[in-house]
Give the backbone structure.
Amino acid sequence: MARLSRRDALRIAAGSAALAVTGMPVRAAADAAATIAAFTGGRAPEAGRITLDLAASVEDGNSVPLSVAVESPMRADDYVSEILVVADANPWPRVAGFQFSPLAGKAAFATRIRLTENQNVIVLAKLGDGRIFQARQHVEVTIGACTN
């Protein structure tokens, strides 16, 4: 039988305490932050340009309607190159990613996503010149998805 080191015991205790206090595993929050940091490359997102259509409260987290539109002329000198959707409490926080070019005509999509519990849905849009915009909506989920 393998012995449990003091360091491993402290990690287990810290993770259990975080789960008890926040209701969210530390890893999920860290993964969401890491996903956002990787997308932004350390740049601070700006507010504006993103229209996020997402209910503040949903009964079933298995199929949550989401639509996003980013205000942009979609010209070679001013266009949306990528959109990232992150759900900060999902076991896999990167929910969706979309890539665009000026030929797309508009930067918009509609889909359905899965949410495991009450959480923030964060939408980030990266423009061709490197600027990043962000919109955020907290969603209350009655019946969660993404569980084993």
Remarks:
- The mean pLDDT is 85.
- The domain at 6-143 is CATH 2.60.40.2470 (Immunoglobulin-like).
- The longest strand covers residues 132-143.
- The radius of gyration is 18 Å.
